[in-house]
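Tutorial, part two.
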Amino acid sequence: MSNNRVSKNNRVSKNKLRGIAKGPLTPSPSPCNKRQLKQYILSVGSKTRRTCAQCGMSYLVNSPSDVKLHDKFHRICVDGRDWNMRLGEPLESISQNEAIYKVDSSRQYECIGALEMLNIVNKELNAPDDNDFWTSGDSNGSVYVYVRNKVAVGIVSVERFNTSPGHGKKGYWFSVEDGRVVSPQPLDILCGISRIYVCRRYRRHGIAIKLLHAVQRHLIYGLVIPSLKIAWSQPSTSGGQLAMRFNGRMHKSGKVLIPVYT
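Running the prediction step on this input gives:
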């Protein structure tokens, strides 16, 4: 009996060993054999914003649309906008290559060109669009453009007021130095300078004053408008200096006043 048990146990042990020997040898997992995780980093170009020292526009240098927009804005702001001198007759010929034109709002090319230039003024002043009074065709205002060598380099938009009692806008004396209205007593005015602009390359050549003189002579047929009947809207620092030269008056306080309207 004992011999049979021993032999039987031996057979079981040998069978177990055979099964173990025949089975695959599976090594314990090693950290080196584990799947390595890879980290992917999405590289996105940094957005570089630049402010042009000449035209003052801020734009993204790595954005093609921004660069294109800046190039157009810069060109008009600094050098002016191309203007076809065959469009209409000039109001005043300054020289062989210079003239002042009145913009015809019914002509698309002239209207678009004027609006592009006035848009620059609005951006510099951080002012809203204020063109309804001359684009509507109701004779409530006019736009004059100073053209030199087929390029519009200066522009003025002027609003004509209703002079009927109780309907016209009123002007007030304004201190440029203090930046405030100094007298509640209203002034009778005929028109107001809404926007005036001269491209940077052509400043200090008297173009703005020539545009104002054109307003005096041509806004109202048969009348040369006295300078004190012309008021100003939102005068900037440079606009205030121009206004003081054009129709400023010395107050008894020693400060120069200009007529403004709201």
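Residues 1-34, 38-44 have pLDDT under 50 and may be disordered. In part three we will examine how such features are distributed along the chain.
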